[in-house]
Protein backbone atom coordinates (compact mmCIF):
# COMPACT_ATOMS: atom_id res chain seq x y z
CA UNK A 1 0.00 0.00 0.00
CA UNK A 2 2.83 2.34 0.92
CA UNK A 3 4.63 1.50 -2.34
CA UNK A 4 1.52 2.30 -4.40
CA UNK A 5 1.10 5.63 -2.60
CA UNK A 6 4.76 6.52 -3.18
CA UNK A 7 4.55 5.63 -6.89
CA UNK A 8 1.42 7.72 -7.24
CA UNK A 9 3.17 10.72 -5.65
CA UNK A 10 6.20 10.29 -7.92
CA UNK A 11 3.98 10.07 -11.00
CA UNK A 12 2.10 13.23 -9.98
CA UNK A 13 5.40 15.03 -9.35
CA UNK A 14 6.68 13.93 -12.77
CA UNK A 15 3.56 15.32 -14.48
CA UNK A 16 3.90 18.64 -12.63
CA UNK A 17 7.60 18.91 -13.53
CA UNK A 18 6.85 18.14 -17.20
CA UNK A 19 4.14 20.79 -17.29
CA UNK A 20 6.49 23.31 -15.65
CA UNK A 21 9.32 22.59 -18.09
CA UNK A 22 6.94 22.80 -21.05
CA UNK A 23 5.67 26.17 -19.79
CA UNK A 24 9.23 27.41 -19.35
CA UNK A 25 10.17 26.28 -22.84
CA UNK A 26 7.27 28.11 -24.51
CA UNK A 27 7.67 31.79 -23.65
CA UNK A 28 5.30 34.30 -25.21
CA UNK A 29 5.94 38.05 -25.33
CA UNK A 30 3.79 41.00 -26.41
CA UNK A 31 4.83 44.64 -26.96
CA UNK A 32 3.96 46.92 -24.05
CA UNK A 33 3.75 50.09 -26.13
CA UNK A 34 0.36 51.72 -26.61
CA UNK A 35 -1.26 50.78 -29.92
CA UNK A 36 -2.74 53.89 -31.53
CA UNK A 37 -5.40 52.48 -33.83
CA UNK A 38 -6.27 55.95 -35.16
CA UNK A 39 -2.67 56.39 -36.31
CA UNK A 40 -2.64 52.93 -37.92
CA UNK A 41 -5.96 53.60 -39.65
CA UNK A 42 -4.73 56.95 -40.97
CA UNK A 43 -1.51 55.37 -42.26
CA UNK A 44 -3.54 52.80 -44.19
CA UNK A 45 -5.87 55.39 -45.71
CA UNK A 46 -6.11 55.69 -49.51
CA UNK A 47 -3.29 57.30 -51.48
CA UNK A 48 -1.90 57.10 -55.01
CA UNK A 49 1.22 55.00 -54.49
CA UNK A 50 1.98 51.36 -55.31
CA UNK A 51 4.31 48.68 -53.99
CA UNK A 52 4.76 45.69 -56.23
CA UNK A 53 7.31 42.94 -56.50
CA UNK A 54 8.21 39.26 -56.40
CA UNK A 55 8.26 37.03 -53.33
CA UNK A 56 10.90 34.30 -53.25
CA UNK A 57 13.26 32.51 -50.90
CA UNK A 58 16.40 30.39 -50.96
CA UNK A 59 17.07 27.10 -49.26
CA UNK A 60 18.91 27.74 -46.01
CA UNK A 61 21.18 25.62 -43.86
CA UNK A 62 18.53 24.49 -41.39
CA UNK A 63 18.69 21.48 -39.05
CA UNK A 64 22.15 20.61 -40.33
CA UNK A 65 20.93 20.18 -43.92
CA UNK A 66 23.32 21.80 -46.37
CA UNK A 67 21.54 23.69 -49.17
CA UNK A 68 22.15 22.72 -52.79
CA UNK A 69 23.32 25.53 -55.11
CA UNK A 70 21.30 28.18 -53.25
CA UNK A 71 18.32 27.49 -55.49
CA UNK A 72 15.69 30.24 -55.57
CA UNK A 73 12.10 29.23 -54.89
CA UNK A 74 9.29 31.59 -55.90
CA UNK A 75 6.24 31.91 -53.70
CA UNK A 76 3.45 29.57 -54.89
CA UNK A 77 0.31 31.10 -56.35
CA UNK A 78 -2.01 32.35 -53.61
CA UNK A 79 0.72 33.02 -51.04
CA UNK A 80 -0.43 35.76 -48.65
CA UNK A 81 1.73 38.90 -48.44
CA UNK A 82 0.96 41.08 -45.40
CA UNK A 83 1.59 44.82 -45.23
CA UNK A 84 1.67 46.63 -41.87
CA UNK A 85 2.02 50.36 -41.17
CA UNK A 86 5.19 50.97 -39.16
CA UNK A 87 3.74 52.56 -36.03
CA UNK A 88 5.65 52.99 -32.74
CA UNK A 89 3.84 49.85 -31.54
CA UNK A 90 5.05 47.90 -34.57
CA UNK A 91 8.60 49.16 -34.10
CA UNK A 92 8.61 47.75 -30.54
CA UNK A 93 7.12 44.47 -31.77
CA UNK A 94 9.81 44.11 -34.45
CA UNK A 95 12.60 45.04 -32.04
CA UNK A 96 11.37 42.47 -29.50
CA UNK A 97 11.04 39.76 -32.12
CA UNK A 98 14.55 40.41 -33.38
CA UNK A 99 15.93 40.34 -29.84
CA UNK A 100 14.00 37.52 -28.18
CA UNK A 101 12.45 35.21 -30.75
CA UNK A 102 13.91 31.70 -31.00
CA UNK A 103 12.73 28.09 -30.82
CA UNK A 104 11.53 28.60 -27.24
CA UNK A 105 10.20 32.15 -27.46
CA UNK A 106 7.55 33.75 -29.66
CA UNK A 107 6.66 37.44 -29.91
CA UNK A 108 3.11 38.33 -30.95
CA UNK A 109 1.20 41.48 -31.79
CA UNK A 110 -2.09 42.07 -30.03
CA UNK A 111 -5.20 40.92 -31.91
CA UNK A 112 -6.25 44.53 -32.39
CA UNK A 113 -2.88 45.59 -33.85
CA UNK A 114 -2.82 42.57 -36.16
CA UNK A 115 -6.15 43.66 -37.69
CA UNK A 116 -4.58 46.83 -39.10
CA UNK A 117 -2.90 45.32 -42.12
CA UNK A 118 -3.47 44.90 -45.86
CA UNK A 119 -3.06 41.60 -47.69
CA UNK A 120 -2.24 40.68 -51.29
CA UNK A 121 -1.95 37.31 -53.02
CA UNK A 122 0.85 36.18 -55.31
CA UNK A 123 0.23 35.08 -58.90
CA UNK A 124 1.74 32.13 -60.78
CA UNK A 125 5.15 33.83 -60.84
CA UNK A 126 5.26 34.97 -57.21
CA UNK A 127 4.31 38.55 -58.08
CA UNK A 128 2.15 40.73 -55.83
CA UNK A 129 0.87 44.31 -55.76
CA UNK A 130 -0.37 46.80 -53.14
CA UNK A 131 -2.14 49.82 -54.60
CA UNK A 132 -3.64 53.09 -53.31
CA UNK A 133 -1.08 53.57 -50.54
CA UNK A 134 -0.15 56.82 -48.83
CA UNK A 135 3.43 58.01 -48.34
CA UNK A 136 4.87 56.38 -45.24
CA UNK A 137 6.86 53.46 -43.93
CA UNK A 138 5.52 49.93 -44.33
CA UNK A 139 6.62 46.44 -43.38
CA UNK A 140 5.93 43.50 -45.70
CA UNK A 141 6.09 39.87 -44.61
CA UNK A 142 5.23 36.45 -45.97
CA UNK A 143 5.90 32.76 -45.43
CA UNK A 144 7.18 31.06 -48.60
CA UNK A 145 6.47 27.32 -48.69
CA UNK A 146 8.62 25.24 -51.02
CA UNK A 147 10.06 21.79 -51.62
CA UNK A 148 13.75 21.74 -50.75
CA UNK A 149 16.44 19.22 -51.61
CA UNK A 150 18.73 17.58 -49.07
CA UNK A 151 21.51 15.04 -49.39
CA UNK A 152 23.28 12.45 -47.30
CA UNK A 153 26.11 9.98 -47.75
CA UNK A 154 25.85 6.29 -47.10
CA UNK A 155 28.42 3.53 -47.34
CA UNK A 156 27.59 1.31 -50.31
CA UNK A 157 30.66 -0.92 -50.43
CA UNK A 158 34.39 -1.24 -49.88
CA UNK A 159 37.53 -1.25 -51.98
CA UNK A 160 40.47 -3.49 -51.15
CA UNK A 161 44.13 -2.50 -51.46
CA UNK A 162 46.94 -5.04 -52.11
CA UNK A 163 50.70 -4.71 -52.21
CA UNK A 164 52.91 -5.54 -55.20
CA UNK A 165 53.00 -9.21 -54.19
CA UNK A 166 49.24 -9.46 -54.19
CA UNK A 167 48.93 -9.54 -50.43
CA UNK A 168 45.91 -7.82 -48.88
CA UNK A 169 46.73 -4.63 -47.02
CA UNK A 170 43.48 -2.88 -46.04
CA UNK A 171 39.96 -1.96 -47.11
CA UNK A 172 38.49 1.52 -47.64
CA UNK A 173 34.77 2.34 -47.52
CA UNK A 174 32.97 3.55 -50.63
CA UNK A 175 30.32 6.23 -50.05
CA UNK A 176 27.53 7.29 -52.38
CA UNK A 177 25.52 10.53 -52.19
CA UNK A 178 21.75 10.28 -52.12
CA UNK A 179 19.29 13.16 -52.64
CA UNK A 180 15.80 13.60 -51.25
CA UNK A 181 13.08 16.25 -51.19
CA UNK A 182 11.37 17.67 -48.11
CA UNK A 183 8.85 20.43 -47.41
CA UNK A 184 10.19 23.65 -45.92
CA UNK A 185 9.09 27.24 -45.29
CA UNK A 186 11.01 30.50 -44.79
CA UNK A 187 9.82 33.84 -43.50
CA UNK A 188 10.76 36.71 -45.81
CA UNK A 189 10.26 40.37 -44.95
CA UNK A 190 11.26 43.90 -45.89
CA UNK A 191 10.72 47.51 -44.81
CA UNK A 192 9.61 49.82 -47.61
CA UNK A 193 9.25 53.60 -47.44
CA UNK A 194 7.13 55.66 -49.83
CA UNK A 195 8.32 59.26 -49.81
CA UNK A 196 6.04 60.88 -52.40
CA UNK A 197 2.39 60.37 -53.27
CA UNK A 198 2.06 58.58 -56.58
CA UNK A 199 5.38 56.75 -56.20
CA UNK A 200 5.84 53.23 -57.56
CA UNK A 201 8.13 50.95 -55.53
CA UNK A 202 9.34 47.72 -57.10
CA UNK A 203 10.92 45.28 -54.66
CA UNK A 204 12.13 41.73 -54.22
CA UNK A 205 10.74 40.22 -51.06
Question: Which helices and strands occur, and which strands form pairs?
Answer:
Layout: H1 2-25, E1 27-29, H2 37-43, E2 49-54, E3 56-58, E4 72-74, E5 80-85, H3 88-100, E6 105-107, H4 111-115, E7 118-121, E8 127-133, E9 136-162, E10 168-194, E11 200-204
Parallel strand pairs: 1-6, 2-11
Antiparallel strand pairs: 2-8, 3-4, 5-7, 5-9, 9-10
How would you summarize this macromolecular structure in one to three sentences?
This protein has 205 residues and is of the alpha+beta class. It has helices at residues 2-25, 37-43, 88-100, 111-115; strands spanning 27-29, 49-54, 56-58, 72-74, 80-85, 105-107, 118-121, 127-133, 136-162, 168-194, 200-204. 24% of the residues lie in helices and 46% in strands.
Instruction: Indicate the radius of gyration in whole angstroms.
Output: 27 Å
Helical coverage, percent range:
10-25%
The total beta strand count reads 11
| Total DSSP helices | 4
What this model shows, in words?
The protein is α+β, with helices and mostly antiparallel strands and 205 residues long. It has a domain of 139 residues: Sandwich (Immunoglobulin-like). Helix content is 24%, strand content 46%. It is built from 4 helices and 11 strands. Strands 7-5-9-10 form a 4-stranded antiparallel beta sheet, with no helix packed on it. The protein is elongated, with a radius of gyration of 27 Å. The termini are far apart. The N terminus is likely disordered.
Provide tags for this entry.
single chain, 205 residues, alpha+beta, Immunoglobulin-like, three-stranded mixed beta sheet, 4 helices, disordered N terminus
Amino acid sequence: MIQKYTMKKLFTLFILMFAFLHTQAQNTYYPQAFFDKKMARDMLAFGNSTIEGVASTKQKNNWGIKPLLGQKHYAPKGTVIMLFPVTPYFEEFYSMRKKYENKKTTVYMSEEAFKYRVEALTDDHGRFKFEKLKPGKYYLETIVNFTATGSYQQQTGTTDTYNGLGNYLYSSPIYSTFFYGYDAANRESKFVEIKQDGELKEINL
